[in-house]
């Protein structure tokens, strides 16, 4: 009989590797039945893993995630998407009004406002890194928590915030419509392990073999995703070979844009693609860096130790592992 | 000044309450109105005082109000109708505040009315601190302060206990004898009616009509609580009312 | 020489006329529609009523409305039953037992003013992301007004009625059942009114966590997507739900409290 | 042969003893602490009270508490003043004028049951993401209970007092000022109590959008970061705020309503 | 069976209400208690009925209750104390429901009590539909249905209007004469006291003491409303009480 694994995720393209693995039947090959649970927000996925409502989850890292993990409730076992030089990821958008007044580059952030979803979100982290890299004081950027991506887009369009750091497909849409100006990609300045596949310590203890099968299948999905969606041309610019990319994008579209016609969904998926490591390896050093930054901001408790909540045993060859 | 009821009739919705009531109250005369529960006594009084418009007939003032009267037709209420958030003095002052009077004159009038009702020591007390008897004395002081010509009194003593009622009755007879107010005195208590009134209007059950009018010639000042002649008059009225009172008592309110 | 007694009564008895009420609502909707059509109000700020109506009809036709309502109502009913039931029990204890009163009143006073949305993250940890946390949110909201109304009602029961029952030798349990409970019923029913209103208000908060179905989830999704026509349609559904529940409680009152006025 | 009359009175007068109240709260906190230390309650589900206390102290020491409180209080005060003020005016109109009653009652009945969180996206469109939308959210929440309490209070003013005033020839304006308003004051004060409670509850919702400062924003951030000690600390602050405001209104009542019992 | 008050004293907090009250009520004897407002009459009655524990002294039952009496000491209340959510029959049945009686017997007892008070037609009416007089008749029916030996009546007629009071007084005298209940009858109304009681306990102001005891030997059946001898007795009590009544009236409640 098939063994069931309950997995929680958002309907985001960044979880594409998981969706591809399901569609391609990689889990079935391992003898697993994956039961997908879709969520509206990232935080509850982590909580659901802690409480045992689901077996594994996939989301972006946040301050809240690290705090939960630090209390011993979570184990990170494989990678989700990442920001990688040369690949589109989150973009920095500036409102028309702010742009007109001279907000043209990252260095101009001080004295302006930035819309984010929530305190401690990945957008919060990314502005922190930009401030560190460009050497300005984060306190001089006024952060406006707006709870949802559409609210952020609406606030930028109406000039109620000066800037956003936001997912590529939304950014390109706003810029193309003339509602805002795109002034740079985050990946131009920094690399960043965006999120992870994680489970609970109890799960590892009780069903380690099952998890190993799950990760194996997931890695296959990541490989398919990477080879089809992340091809670069000679100039280092990403190109989509329709023959390879369209079937994979179509599979993902079924999950991410279920109410759109397939062709439209496929197009949207391609516009929203993030970099995913082909073997789902984590940039472990970056995670340590993230936790350190959150700690420095007082958003993550001092006792949280990344070593304790990353299990390096499921995927071989994680990069950048600190001694 | 005479107060005249001219063929007054009234009702609420389909309910006929008063029918064809005519009588008049002459200067200095007290008319008592008695009748079974719900026969429209209070309604009649409200119509006489201009608080309600009758369906038929009208209430008239004949002659002019005496000079200096601020409110010729003045009510005294069964439940006292004092503002609980005002002191005794404040309650009496209330009815002068919108009159063109100097502050000093107003103060003097209030103090005078309180003194007359034996309330001088209670000027700053709140109603809740007073006994029922004292509260009604405040109601009387408030009525006196506007120098009325006709007092309309709706069971002014019925909310008091028997002993207090006795005490206030003495005050009231003294007052009415001394001041020569005219008055309409509604009551269930035939003893009160025969002690205060020159004429007693006996009403029938609803729709209330005038069943009979009993005259008592003796001056009020000479009447006393234990008077046998008055007791006989009250007894006679009671005999005539009794059956209707029984019927009123056994009436079911719908609901 | 005779003049009528001047009329000085009347007034201070405003009457609500049904016709004016209907007319007011009609005028408001018409004005809203006009303002939208004339472009005074942008459709983002407030969609025209026709669009809201269209959204409602579409919602009803597609069966989505029934699905969302069913999900929300099942949460409402179970959450309300749990919360209000517990509220009645605790309220009775506080109203009757000194120890319960001393212990219960300060706890209720301290917990009542806490906004339930603030506790949502904890509710998720306590009750998970399934139905339990949603039901618990609603139950928590309904509990406090019900408990407060119940002990208020018990406090308000005429003590002479209780002394009367004692003077005829009725056992305590009979007094509670036959005197205290019916006497507290009016206050408990108005507590029910408030508890039900709060339960409906909390539907949106409860469905903020992991709900795909339900009127609250629908409104939240519409708000996130700035689909204001659907948002307002959802709000209209909640308003109608509120009026319906309040009407039902009114009907229950007029049956259960026949003996009053 | 003589025996005492059997005692059958007493009871049904539970008294709240302050000592038991304090003891109850102490026992609850001690039990909570014990459960945390014994590991029965995971720190994710509920941080131990010591940690909450530490978080509170740190918050107070760093001046953050003052900053957040100041931000929330200014929103609370202005939102409450606007909403409750409008509520009193509308309530008086409904209580005194037939036209206002006919027009106002159905509108209030239809809008009262709408959860304010559901309207947040619209408020943001109408009032932006600055202070205006937060103040408006609170004002909207305070308006309805105040309006309902005010017209309820006016309806409840003893009509014989009004007829008395009329019978002494007082002008209408004087009657409103000297009879109706003081008579409605007790109901208006209990409306104030409810409106203030709702305003405090709405702080969290109001500060969901675009707020960096404020107790609500602080609680939301703590929830996002799963810093449950800070979350509970923020909730404690709101609870204390609620108790304080309720105490202040109680004090105002005992001054303004001296003339009652 | 005799009901005995033995040196009863009571108070609330620092307020002394009753002091050293002793008297007894013999079989079939009616004792009236009169006194100024707030002198502790109601408190005394509650102590006699076992609803309150006195600070000093005690209330005693001498002898045994008559066989068949379900509630030997039974109250009749000033404000009737009817459950508004029960019909007339339901209110009377209430006090039998916890007794070991067959349903049929209970129904019969209720019907009998209602019939005796002239309430047969009102069995299914709710209290709010009844006049005050009828409500107190329900209160009396409820008291009768438990076959009391002693009735404790706290101003049972004072909430009624004067005419209804007159009607109920007739019913009450008839009842007490026919059934030979013993009773303690608290009242402000001296007229009622002299018509009903064999002995009248006149109390002083708070803290209430027994000032004097007035005996009226004539059988109740022979007394009538207009009786001059009784009126004189009432007048005498009134003279002795008057000053204290005035003082009680002028007392300020603190607050
Ligand atoms: N505002 C009103 N609306 C409808 N019915 C009324 C109103 N006022 C009085 N009634 C009815 O009119 C009838 C007469 O009432 P009214 O108060 O005048 O009687 P009354 O003789 O004063 O009675 P009572 O002796 O009990 O004081 C009663 O049946 C009463 O229910
Ligand atoms: N439960 C109580 N707690 C405190 N004080 C009380 C209580 N019951 C009565 N009193 C006070 O005790 C005194 C006597 O009260 P009681 O009701 O016995 O007097 P009473 O003679 O029946 O008066 P009335 O003639 O007005 O009915 C009053 O001053 C009253 O305020
Ligand atoms: Mg009347
Ligand atoms: Mg008494």
Question: What does this entry show, briefly?
Answer:
Chain B contains 7 helices and 9 strands; from the N terminus they run E-E-E-H-E-E-H-H-H-E-H-E-H-E-E-H. Chain B is of the alpha/beta class.
Question: How many individual β-strands of chain C?
Answer: 1
Structural class of chain A: alpha/beta
Task: Report the end-to-end length of chain A measured between terminal Cα atoms.
Answer: 42 Å
Q: Which term fits the overall shape of chain C?
A: flat
Q: How do the strands of the widest beta sheet of chain A line up side by side?
A: 2-1-3-12-4
**What characteristic shape of chain A results from the CA principal axes?**
globular
Mean pLDDT of chain C: 91
Mean pLDDT of chain A comes to 92
CATH superfamily of chain C: MetI-like
The topology string of helices and strands of chain A comes to EHHEHEHEEEHEHEHEHEEEHHHEHH
Assign the CATH topology of chain C.
MetI-like fold
- Name the CATH class of chain C: Mainly Alpha
| Small molecules bound | adenosine-5'-triphosphate, magnesium ion
Strand content of chain C: under 5%
The number of distinct helices of chain C, counting runs of at least 4 residues, comes to: 10
User: How large is the count of helical segments of chain A?
Assistant: 13
Helicity range of chain A? 40-55%
Low-confidence stretches of chain C: none
Polypeptide structure, described:
The complex is a heteropentamer, with one copy of chain A (323 residues), two copies of chain B (255 residues) and two copies of chain C (261 residues). Chain A has helices spanning 16-23, 26-29, 42-51, 63-70, 96-100, 122-134, 149-157, 168-176, 201-229, 242-256, 262-271, 284-296, 306-309; strands at residues 3-9, 32-38, 56-60, 75-79, 81-83, 91-95, 113-116, 142-145, 163-166, 180-185, 192-193, 195-199, 275-276. Chain A is an alpha/beta fold and 323 residues long. In chain A, strand 7, helix 6 (122-134) and strand 8 (142-145) form a beta-alpha-beta unit. The mean pLDDT of chain A is 92. With 255 residues, chain B is of the alpha/beta class. Chain B folds into two domains: 2-66 and 149-254, Rossmann fold, CATH 3.40.50.300; 82-148, no CATH class. Chain B has helices at residues 41-48, 88-94, 103-116, 132-145, 162-179, 190-196, 228-249, and strands at 2-12, 15-25, 30-34, 56-62, 73-76, 150-154, 182-186, 199-203, 210-215. Chain B has a six-stranded mixed sheet with strand order 5-6-7-3-8-9, with helices on both faces. Chain B has a three-stranded antiparallel sheet with strand order 2-1-4. In chain B, a hairpin with a 2-residue loop joins strand 1 (2-12) and strand 2. Chain B is globular. The relative contact order of chain B is 0.19. The mean pLDDT of chain B is 93. Chain C has a single domain (49-260), classed as MetI-like (MetI-like fold). Chains in contact: A-C, A-D, B-C, B-D, B-E, C-D, C-E, D-E. At the C-D interface, helix 1, helix 3, helix 4, helix 5 and helix 7 of C face helix 1, helix 3, helix 4, helix 5 and helix 7 of D. The complex binds adenosine-5'-triphosphate (2 copies) and magnesium ion (2 copies).
